[in-house]
Amino acid sequence: EALGLKRRSLETEAAGWLEVLHPADRDRFRATLDGIIEQRRGRIDQDFRLRAIDGHYMTFNLRARPVVGADGEVVRCIGTLIDVTGERIAAERLLHDAVRDNLTGLPNRELFLDRLDQALTFAKMDESLKPTVMVIDLDRFKQVNVSVGMGVGDSILLTVARRLMRLLKPQDTLARISGDQFGMILMSERDPERITTFADTMRRSLRAPITFAEKEVFITASIGLVLPGQEQSKRSEVLKDAELAMYYAKRIGGDRIEVFRPAMRQQKIDHVSLEGELRHALERNQIFMRYQPIVRMHDRAIGGFEAFMRWRHPTLGEMAASDFLPVAEESGLILDLGLFALEHAARQLGQWQRLVRVDPPLFMHVNVSSRQLLRHDLIQDLKAVLARNAVAPGSLKLEVTESLVMENPEYAAVMLARIRELGAGLCLDDFGTGQSALAYLQRFPFDTIKIDQRFVRDSAKGAARAARPIIVGSIVSLAHQLGMEVVAESLEREAEATEMGRFGCEYAQGVLFGEPLTTEECRALFEPSTPKDRRRAA
Asked: Which one of 62, 176, 419, 497 is at 20 to 30 Å from 270 when CA atoms are compared?
């Protein structure tokens, strides 16, 4: 009756059953009957899918036993059919929920690890199979959740999942392995160069703005990947190495791809113990500042500096900010460290401006984190710092990244305007890495922009290489029209400096002009100089 078939229509030969059985169940049904007939004994207790009269399939439990005739052969089977469709659906739902992410429907961490295990096993048996493992972590997603709400945060995760899935082929796997972290097993690409190109396509697709309630949210991701053919043999090792590469990408500033290198394991730092030590580092005077010269293009004289935080760790030695600021961001210590950097940079700038009286005055760039910019306390902190330290108006420049500004453009515009009103300068770092158009610059009160190093390096090929001078020229031209000065950063070769000067950049920064220096080393740049050349870099 449940199937809508005529009464006793299944009281027929096995061939009659085959017509209504699901195609995938027919071989199993035949094998079960053949076993009963051959052994002339036994019982059937299995689930089969049968087609209802309207075409859909229902699951029934068949319990039957053979009836043996006088000649010892099986005459027929008798038994019962019980509709277990509801129970099967519930069981499948439980199984689905056990291995699938409830929000996105993607495989969860457990299923991802199982598929990774299979991929590695098959790769050992077939050299043509070369799985690449990636870990994709959304940058500053916690702050986005706080600013836009959990509901919108979930919608962002769904959008991210859809964008990534559109790039994959059937043999690839995408999983949500934690809150804002996705795992990928890429089987469709084997060549390392094509793999990294694919990863960059993913990164760029995630940077496209997501619109909610007429507001644009900008998301970036840090991607770590383990290329096929590396030494890992266990799934846990492969995933751990991909995560390690991802954390390296995040430490450098996020919105980038890092390929795992074995040396990363030796440099790994225990974040838990590091956080505990970092809490005492300020009071123990272990945190200090270094300053990298920023020179004028036309005469190579020092125009100012960028302040970099360092940690003189008692056992690990001098640590760069990229090694401990991610820990500070997660723990909230970034606020104290950020104020420390602001205070010391302003104090040092005031001293150098009194030592070297030039026009325009020396300037100082200080990096601002996302957590600092999101807090209203930054305005009060900056006001107090400027009150305590006499520096020329606009010469203490707060430096923010393009991705940070584009996270919440409306809020950023208000905060940056208030910062300028207090008498501080503003520099946009890494311009050209994010989603903002050139014309978008006029919305924000920056007085300086830094061109991203990828435009400094002439490493592009084909059409991209031909377009590079046009892009750089457009950036510099528009910046000048908006009254901004331009810094070319990460310069390593004289040819790069010459080219950037030809494009019209006023300032340059990089190892070509000096590594980040101690206070004493910077002072030595000024004191032995003649009045004419006292600002020229040594």
From this structure: 176
